[in-house]
Design goal:
3% of the residues lie in helices and 31% in strands. The protein is mainly beta. It has 3 domains: 1-40, no CATH class; 42-100 and 384-492, Jelly Rolls, CATH 2.60.120; 102-381, no CATH class. It is rod-shaped. It starts with 5 loop residues before the first strand and ends with a strand.
């Protein structure tokens, strides 16, 4: 009686698939329960790979080989074929993920880096600017219009330029965007004149709704036809009983009202991005409304932007209102004054969009000009992207292996990768000329958000060769879905 030696059994059917002495398939019989008593080595393969990973870490080993198996914990880049891989970046914590560094063409007046971010700042009001990123990417922005000027002759304070800020603005790669920075309203030199409004600041281009920050409203003058503050991003202050101008919704606040209590006229302060301007009183001009702090340029370092200008008081030796001070004093806006010898209104600060101060009725003294605006864009310096990670070759001990397995350690650093959709694995025995894709399954965890994924007994018999390599690809990667690869092992027989 001859003996048939069963080399491999399908555990789902109980059928011998390979025989030591015959190429025929043999059914083990109806009395044998499928999947019972037959050995499946998938778990052993995975355990061997896990032990190999631990040995690599403990020994700080680079890619190394066992018999018909190769293991790489990415202690260095020697096991990765850079010429066949794309967007592969090895982190110092010994993992690979897909990363690209966008190329940006711009004419910003200033730029810099802040941790993981790069920022661009436009302040030139004489010409439009441009910004072109070759990669579609979310941006944070701060757009501030020019501040309004204070009024001349018991003038109300100028309103701050409108302020727009948010994160998550997607700018499409390859599109050029236009940047316009608004100038502040010029100082008034004409007796009994309202302050001029500031100019708008604008970001526009294909694929976005145009973002327009409205110029700040000019401050009032004492003439009954001019005693109301002008509307704007933030409204200018009123005087002589006139009301403050209105601010623009979600950009700034109203200016303060002026008091009519002859012969003492306290003018209202201009509105700011963070609060209304204060009303004038019989003894003091109203303070400008406070602005808003932003650390868009340097995280943790706040700068005050878009404070309103202070209102004037017409009586000698009575104080005008302060600018919208906040923590940084005059960096926010111009203050009005009431002293005859220093009746000039203070200018708003350029680049911050602050309002100018009103002046009193001393001929020859000018009102304060509004500060010019600013446009700032901020983006991540590098971007999560799809990855192709291909290994260098390892020579099989016997040419033309028929089956392969792959075990990977991955981390869902952001979101959760769907196996075989967001991450795919392939094995080649001809140095990457031909690849066969395996079907990953979840084989457990090795830490928080960290998974062991694998496939076993992948049929690669249609290929021919002995130069073994793998390829891993990630897909649909973004800031909300980032898949990191910490270790990979492939084996073959």
């Amino acid at each position: 009686m001859s003996t048939l030696y069963v080399d491999k059994v399908d555990p789902s059917t109980g059928t011998a698939l390979e025989l030591g002495s015959s190429g025929d398939t043999v059914n083990l019989g109806s009395g044998v329960t499928a999947g019972t008593g037959f050995y499946n080595d998938d778990q052993v393969q995975s355990n061997i790979a896990m032990l190999g990973f631990k040995v690599a870490v403990n020994g700080s080993l680079v890619k190394y080989d066992l018999v018909d198996q190769t293991i790489d914990e990415y202690q260095d880049a020697s096991g990765v074929d850079a010429s066949a891989s794309t967007n592969e970046v090895r982190n110092a914590s010994d993992y690979y993920s897909g990363i690209v560094t966008p190329s940006v063409t711009e004419d910003a007046d200033d730029s810099g880096t802040d941790g993981d971010y790069t920022w661009y700042k436009w302040t030139d009001t004489a010409a439009t600017g441009s910004y072109d990123n070759d990669t579609t990417q979310d941006h944070e922005y701060l757009i501030i219009a020019g501040g309004g000027a204070g009024g001349y002759y018991n003038g109300g304070g100028g309103g701050a330029g409108g302020l727009l800020t948010a994160t998550g603005l997607s700018l499409t790669g390859g599109n050029e965007y236009t940047v316009t920075v608004g100038d502040g309203g010029p100082s008034q030199t004409t007796y009994n004149a309202q302050g001029d409004d500031g100019d708008d600041s604008i970001l526009s281009g294909t694929g976005i709704s145009t973002l327009t920050a409205v110029g700040g409203g000019g401050g009032s003058a004492v003439d009954p036809s001019l005693d109301e503050g002008r509307d704007g991003g933030s409204g200018g202050g009123g005087c002589n009983g006139g009301v403050g101008g209105s601010g623009t919704t979600d950009q700034g606040y109203d200016g303060g009202d002026g008091i009519n209590a002859a012969p003492a006229y306290g003018s209202g302060g201009g509105g700011g991005a963070g609060a209304v301007g204060a009303d004038g009183t019989s003894s003091v001009g109203g303070d400008g409304g406070i602005g808003i702090q932003s650390d868009i340029i340097e995280t943790g370092t706040n700068v005050w932007y878009a404070g309103g200008g202070g209102g004037c008081h017409n009586s000698t030796n009575l104080s005008g209102g302060n600018h919208g001070a906040g923590a940084n004093g005059r960096t926010q806006g111009g203050g009005g004054t009431g002293n005859v010898g220093t009746a000039v209104g203070n200018d708003g600060t350029d680049g911050l969009g602050s309002g100018g101060g009103g002046n009193m009725n001393d001929s020859g003294q000018d009102s304060g000009s509004g500060g010019s605006g600013v446009v700032i864009l901020r983006r991540l310096t590098t971007v999560v992207a799809d990855l192709t990670l291909q290994s260098t070759d390892t020579t099989a001990s016997t040419a033309n292996p028929d089956y392969a397995n792959m075990i990977c350690l991955i981390e869902n650093a952001a979101g959760t990768a769907t196996l075989n959709t967001d991450i795919k694995g392939y094995v080649s025995e001809d140095s990457g000329v031909t690849f066969t894709q395996g079907t990953f399954v979840d084989e457990g965890t090795w830490g928080t958000n960290k998974k062991i994924i694998a496939f076993h007994d992948l049929d690669i018999s249609a290929q021919s060769g002995s130069s073994m390599c793998y390829k891993i690809t990630t897909h649909n990667q973004s800031a909300s879905k980032e898949t990191r690869i910490y270790a990979t092992s492939i084996g073959w027989r």
